[in-house]
Design brief:
Layout (H helix, E strand, L loop, with lengths): L3 E8 L13 H24 L4 E3 L28 H13 L2 E11 L2 E9 L5 E6 L5 E2 L3 E2 L13 E3 L4 E4 L8 H9 L4 E6 L7 H4 L2 H9 L2 E6 L1 E2 L9 E2 L3 E3 L5 E4 L6 E8 L1 H9 L18
Parallel strand pairs: 1-2, 2-3, 9-10, 10-11
Antiparallel strand pairs: 1-16, 3-4, 4-5, 6-7, 8-9, 11-14, 12-13, 14-15
Helix pairs in contact: 3-5
Length: 295
């Protein structure tokens, strides 16, 4: 009997014009509320379609505010797991019997913020969080070091009711070391919620993450938001969310420009089949890699 897990990815856009450089707390809350409600509706649809593991996009309840450097966005950060958004998503996960990966802007304390994702099991229990390790600061429009500290929790995996999963976030995908760590720790599915625009790195979107899947023999769920976000308009978030299998083949893919829920059936038995063929973990030579962490 096959071990199939139905998974989902949500790609959406922020439609509220953000207060560039402003301090309008009412507007900030309006944005969060609208994005939250949109995701709750898609989550209901996912439940109706039988999804068991569902992942949201990077900083799912807001715009990609790293397009500017303004302290007003610090006000949108919340604690994990004790903030209101994660508490609500715990209730939602329990209601639908669904594992949720919930990326938000995390506040550890005033002045200490992370780009994080909470993992919630299907019974509503909080399993832990991943904090984005690799933080870009790239012109134009990706000023993430202004907002986030580098993650300090390593590369954890989470044993959910349906699969063992790992999380990478956006810019992390350019670094194979963490992807390998997740595989060695037992991840069967790695979810990578992102916010990336058309241009320089778009060709890597369908290259790097399938390569991680093939190199480590696991499934990857890659998410990107869609549309442009005013007032910054730093470029088009080109969607194209997808699932790829342990052979590195893209097996389900969303559209480039439409909001949607992407659903895919992942047969976890394929992991064993692929790893019995390609013995990459057996043939590793970690004793020869010491120089990698010295350079």
């Amino acid at each position: 009997m096959s071990n199939v897990v139905r998974c989902g990815l949500i790609q959406t856009k922020n439609e509220v014009v953000s207060p560039a450089g402003g301090t309008d707390k009412k507007m900030l809350e309006q944005i969060k509320e609208k994005m939250l409600n949109k995701h709750l509706e898609y989550t209901k649809q996912a439940h109706e379609k039988g999804v068991k593991i569902l992942c949201y996009q990077e900083i799912f309840n807001g715009p990609y505010f790293c397009a500017e450097q303004q302290t007003c966005w610090y006000e949108t950060a919340e604690e994990i797991p004790n903030g209101p958004t994660i508490k609500l998503m715990q209730e939602t996960a329990k209601k639908y019997g669904m594992v949720l990966i919930v990326p938000i802007y995390e506040k550890e304390q005033t002045g200490v913020y992370y780009n994080s994702a909470a993992v919630i099991d299907a019974d509503g229990s909080y399993l832990g969080k991943y904090r984005k390790n690799h933080i870009p600061h790239v012109a134009p429009g990706f000023w993430e070091k202004f907002y986030f500290r580098p993650g300090n929790l390593g590369y954890p995996v989470f044993q959910t009711q349906f699969a063992t999963i790992g999380v990478y976030i956006c810019y992390d995908r350019h670094f194979p070391e963490g992807a390998r760590a997740l595989g060695l720790a037992g991840a069967e599915i790695v979810f990578n919620p992102s916010a990336t625009v058309a241009g320089l790195s778009e060709y890597l979107w369908k290259l790097e993450q399938p390569a991680h899947a093939a190199a480590n023999g696991y499934f990857v769920g890659a998410i990107n938001r869609v549309g442009t976000e005013a007032p910054w308009n730093i470029g088009e978030f080109y969607g194209s969310s997808y699932f790829c299998n342990p052979r590195g083949q893209i097996i389900y893919q969303a559209s480039r420009d439409q909001e949607e829920l992407l659903v895919g059936d992942l047969n976890l038995d394929e992991i064993k089949e692929v790893r019995h063929t390609w013995q990459f973990f057996r043939d590793r030579r970690p004793e020869t890699y010491e120089q990698l962490v010295k350079l």
